[in-house]
Amino acid sequence: MRRPSVEGMPLSPGQLAALRLAADGYTSRQIATRLGTTEQGVHLRLKEAQTRLGARSRTHAVVIALARGVIRFDELATTQPAGRAA
To answer: What are the extents of the domains in the chain?
Structure first.
């Protein structure tokens, strides 16, 4: 049985992966495709990450994760996601 997320808990590998792709500018649909899950699954992962980071939004979660070193700029892709102008 899954435990409810609490602020301060470490992020799961799935939450980290979704957060990194969100930081890269991918949409939920693009993240779902890359991770082999559904958009609903992506929303759940990002919402859980927000809770664990104490963030108010997806963008705030990315900012907090970068500031705390949970994700790093050098881990992010150097190319733009498909369908986005440079």
So the answer is: 13-73
pLDDT in tens, 15-70: 999 999 999 999 999 999 999 999 999 999 999 999 999 999 999 999 999 999 99
| Cβ–Cβ < 8 Å for 55, 45 | no
The predicted model scores a pTM of 0.81
- Name the DSSP letter for residue 57: S
CATH code of the domain occupying 13-73: 1.10.10.10
Q: Which residues contact 76 (CB under 8 A, 6 or more apart)?
A: 20, 23, 24
- In the chain, DSSP finds a helix count (H) and a strand count (E) of 4, 0
Cα–Cα dist 66/71, whole Å: 5
CB distance 54 to 5 below 8 Å:
no
